[in-house]
Amino acid sequence: RICVITLAEAHPLLQSGKTIKNINYQISANCSRLQNKVSGKSKRTCSFIFQMQGAQFLTELAPLCRISSSDGEEYTIYSCIRGRLIEVNENILSNPALLQEKPSTEGYIAVVLPKFEESKSITQGLLTQKEYEEVLLKRRSSA
């Protein structure tokens, strides 16, 4: 039920041979994703329940971080999912190349936990790998 936020394989940072200069989790003067402090416990009853406090709530359009490349381009990475921010990957701050070298494993951006009652509709709305590849093919052919 958790969602790991990563760069899509078609993201310009993964396609163009760019070098990542900086990753910034400071979204605004008053909001840093690094200040997200989650505490809580898990209980096992009939189903898994995770009780947490202090996690920032994100909407689909909530920015998670900004990534600057050496050519001056800046990319804002959005949550794309409603839920609680469980953690951000601080390892990419000291080693930004992880985003490009291992985007779907060690180079993840954040982990988000959607509301239980919304998780089914979220997963039903996701594309399969084949559907995603078809979208990319259409995008490339129209460019």
From TrEMBL:
One example of a Gene Ontology biological process annotation: regulation of filopodium assembly
Alphabetized GO MF terms: actin filament binding; actin monomer binding
Subcellular location: Cell projection, Dendrite; Cell projection, Growth cone; Cell projection, Lamellipodium; Nucleus speckle
Domain of life: Eukaryota
Record key words, sorted: Cell projection, Nucleus
The keyword RNA-binding is annotated on this UniProt entry: no
Pfam families: GCV_H
Gene3D superfamilies cross-referenced by the UniProt entry: 2.40.50.100
Entry GO terms, CC: dendrite; filopodium tip; growth cone; lamellipodium; nuclear speck
Matching PANTHER family: PROTEIN ABITRAM
Family note: Belongs to the ABITRAM family.
Protein name, per record: Protein Abitram
Source organism of this protein record: Thryothorus ludovicianus
GN (gene name): Fam206a
